[in-house]
Amino acid sequence: MTPASAPRQLALALSFEESFAREDFLVGPANAAAFGLIDRWPDWPSRVMILVGPDGAGKSHLAAIWAENAGARFVSASALGHAAVPRELATGALVLEDVRAGAFEERAVFHLLNLAREDEAHVLITARSAPSSWGVALPDLASRLRALPTVTLEPPDDTLLRAVLVKLFADRRLGVDEALLNYLTSRMERSFAAARRLVDRLDHEALRQKRPLTRALAAELVATDET
User: Fold this and answer.
1) Ranges for all domains in the chain classified under CATH 3.40.50.300
2) Number of helices (H) and strands (E), helices first, in the chain?
3) Cis check: omega of the bond before 156, within 30 degrees of 0
4) Can you name the CATH fold of 156-226?
5) What digits encode the pLDDT tens for the residues 81-101?
6) What pLDDT is recorded for position 17?
7) pTM of the entire structure?
8) N or C: which end of the chain has fewer CB within 10 A?
């Protein structure tokens, strides 16, 4: 059998656990304001806060830190129904996750905001974009959302991006050297989501090819993407 016709080695999908502990959240200029908000709870400017940031920016990690301190439940915005609001807010704290245009029941969210005010409960809303982009049709809800304080997670700088890469590799129990980190940070998209995708791909290819994680392997993947 020639090398060209040799069977492709499949990578074994190994499970790994990403830590959402407070001490594992990496703070930099891009997320310092958001981390400060979570860290100073319950001293918030409002009982309901909105945390906005792109996919993979750390919203879930921050929400997990806050939920641990506040005893909060989690519910996806798309799964929240009007009748379920009192049950979801029963602990006095709730994380309403991933609010997006057309993917939530407006009356349920309006009911949640009203009940949180009546019960003096706390709600942390996470979203990928500001409320102005959610296409809210209910005037009272739109007005209420505009009045809520919003904290935004910004794209990471090089120092934070590098630290995130180290953490993502460490979560998979993988060690990396300076040459690889320098190469990746100089060429990759400046986002946490891109860092996650890149680490996943490198891990997969290293397993498939039975090779160590090196700059050379990363360079081969980049060259493949560019062809």
Assistant:
1) 28-152
2) 9, 5
3) no
4) Helicase, Ruva Protein; domain 3 (1.10.8)
5) 999 999 999 999 999 999 999
6) 59
7) 0.79
8) C
